């Protein structure tokens, strides 16, 4: 996977990468990453990239010209161009998995806290939000996408680790425990100490369903549950 991140703040991206799983993926040649400074694509004095909005109103708006030129400098026929914005589709594990599987070049344009000229959307394939809150810029959303895609690419972390992730099959992960067996009277469930693999597997599947039902009922489609599963949830 090749990533091109188009940003006004290259340092933010670099500082995260220097400490993360992304760094390992780069070292193992599982990914390529280029960080493109949008300011390199303006012809205006003082590297200007934003301007007042037509019609009046507070705040500076990211201009088309530098952003579109930055996109065009890296885009190929097979690129997918994502723009980070609170108005986009909400990012989730399915997006991460699908992009990891289908794309070979992702361009992420980091939005600007005051907004961007709407005509930039003509050069973008999809707008993505990471949640219903407003951040000061698109760099954190870009890093979140980069991280969540990279960890599901083949060979980056072990396949078992991410197959057990929350949101695989739309279920949360099952609870896990380590030493000690008794922490201040809170005991590790007996089944996990039994060495009985089939029972452990069944318990974990049940716990996934119970955890999802209790914590994220919105993820469960009850019409698709079996009688046994409904019984487990005491429905
Ligand atoms: N830019 C500002 N807020 C954002 C959000 N929630 N998601 C993506 N980009 C953003």
UniProtKB/TrEMBL annotation:
SUPFAM superfamilies: alpha/beta knot (SSF75217). It comes from the Bacteria. It comes from Entomoplasma ellychniae. Keywords: Cytoplasm, Methyltransferase, S-adenosyl-L-methionine, Transferase, tRNA processing. This is tRNA (guanine-N(1)-)-methyltransferase. GO terms for molecular function: tRNA (guanine(37)-N1)-methyltransferase activity. Homodimer. GO terms for cellular component: cytosol. InterPro entries: Alpha/beta_knot_MTases, tRNA_m1G_MeTrfase_C_sf, tRNA_m1G_MeTrfase_TrmD, tRNA_m1G_MTases_N, tRNA_MeTrfase_TRMD/TRM10. Specifically methylates guanosine-37 in various tRNAs. It catalyses: guanosine(37) in tRNA + S-adenosyl-L-methionine = N(1)-methylguanosine(37) in tRNA + S-adenosyl-L-homocysteine + H(+). It is an enzyme of class 2 (transferase). Residues 1-221 form the tRNA methyltransferase TRMD/TRM10-type domain. It is found in: Cytoplasm. Its EC number is 2.1.1.228. S-adenosyl-L-methionine binds at residues 111, 130-135. GO terms for biological process: tRNA N1-guanine methylation. Belongs to the RNA methyltransferase TrmD family.
């Amino acid at each position: 996977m090749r990533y091109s991140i188009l940003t006004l703040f290259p340092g933010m991206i670099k500082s995260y990468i220097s400490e993360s799983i992304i760094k390992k993926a780069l070292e193992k040649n599982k990914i390529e990453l280029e960080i493109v400074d949008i300011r390199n694509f303006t012809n205006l004095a003082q590297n200007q990239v934003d301007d007042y909005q037509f019609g009046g109103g507070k705040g500076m708006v990211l201009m088309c010209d530098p952003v579109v030129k930055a996109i065009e400098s890296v885009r190929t026929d097979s690129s997918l161009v994502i723009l980070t914005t609170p108005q986009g589709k909400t990012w989730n594990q399915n997006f991460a998995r699908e992009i990891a599987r289908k794309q070979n070049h992702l361009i992420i344009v980091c939005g600007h806290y005051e907004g961007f000229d709407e005509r930039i959307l003509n050069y973008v394939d999809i707008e993505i939000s990471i949640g219903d809150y407003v951040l000061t810029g698109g760099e954190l959303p870009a890093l979140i996408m980069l991280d969540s895609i990279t960890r599901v690419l083949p060979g980056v972390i072990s396949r078992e680790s991410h197959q057990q992730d929350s949101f695989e099959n739309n279920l949360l992960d099952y609870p896990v425990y380590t030493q000690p067996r008794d922490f201040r009277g809170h005991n590790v469930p007996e089944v996990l100490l039994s060495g009985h693999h089939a029972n452990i597997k069944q318990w974990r599947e049940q716990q996934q369903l119970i955890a999802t039902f209790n914590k994220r009922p919105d993820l469960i489609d009850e019409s698709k549950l079996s009688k046994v599963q409904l019984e487990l949830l005491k429905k």
